[in-house]
Specification:
The protein has about 40 residues and is mostly helical. The chain is built from 2 helices and no strands. Helix 1 runs antiparallel to helix 2.
């Protein structure tokens, strides 16, 4: 079964900022990476 849900541009932008910011925990970065993995490919 294919996952048809995709992360919006605004959420992807926030997730990207979380991954680049050293103040967030590993758990937060894991969630952010998961969100980015569900974005549309350009």
């Amino acid at each position: 079964m294919t996952n048809k849900k995709q992360t919006s541009k605004s959420v992807a932008s926030i997730a990207s900022k979380i991954l680049r910011d050293g103040r967030y925990s590993d758990a937060s970065k894991s969630v952010a990476a998961s969100a980015l993995s569900q974005t549309k490919k350009k």
